[in-house]
Amino acid sequence: MNIKGTDRLCKNRATVCFVRPSSDVAASGQRDLVNFPKRVRPIEKSPVRMGIFPEEWFTAFYSKTGVTGPYMALASIGTFLASKEFFVMEHDFYVGVGLFIVLSGIVKSVGPGMAETLNKELDEQEALYKNVRQSEIDHLKRTIEAEKAAQVNATAWEDIIAAKKEAVGLQLESVYRERLSDAYTQVKKRLDYQLEVANVMRRMEQKHMVDWIITNVRKSITPAQEDAALKKCIADLKSLSAA
Predict the structure, then answer these.
(1) Distance (Å, rounded) from C-alpha 118 to C-alpha 112?
(2) Among 12, 61, 77, 239, which residue carries the largest CB count within 10 Å?
(3) % helix / strand / coil in the chain, to the nearest 5?
């Protein structure tokens, strides 16, 4: 086959591989687990008959030939191979039969203990790997929970910052009102001082005016007027006492 034919075949194969989206998962570009599920390693061996033939072979014959069909097929095929000398039973065949018998005895005697030992080792390894896997899962879960808590805390920080801003605003309002009260007190003190100064000046002026008037009145009274006023007072007192 030439190179062009190989390229065309590869292109055709690629086209066939990419054209068949048989599920929504395959159409989205992911693995199609519906039509192609993951392979699972069987824990126990598949059932067999006659030591070497799988059970599925006999089951497949039942719908066509019945129960005796698989055995007749084995007998007829064996007879055909032996009669046509495709399968020659020479001395190696009998050695193989003896070897098979010996190995069967060894397997029957040693096999259960060896199988138990191997299964125990496999269980220990599986438990170890599961422990590692579970530890990683738990660690990732804790990391996810921590991340969620951090996100919640980050969201709460917005409320905390808003509350702090509100508290600062209240503090500023309190300081503003305190300063207003202080300003009012200082202004009131100054006004009271000015009022007191005005009152003192008015009292002093009144006192000075009274003193000045009294002084001037005293200066205007002569000794004769004083004697006349004194005599008049004495006369009034006598008239009052006589009455």
Answers:
(1) 10
(2) 61
(3) 80, 0, 15
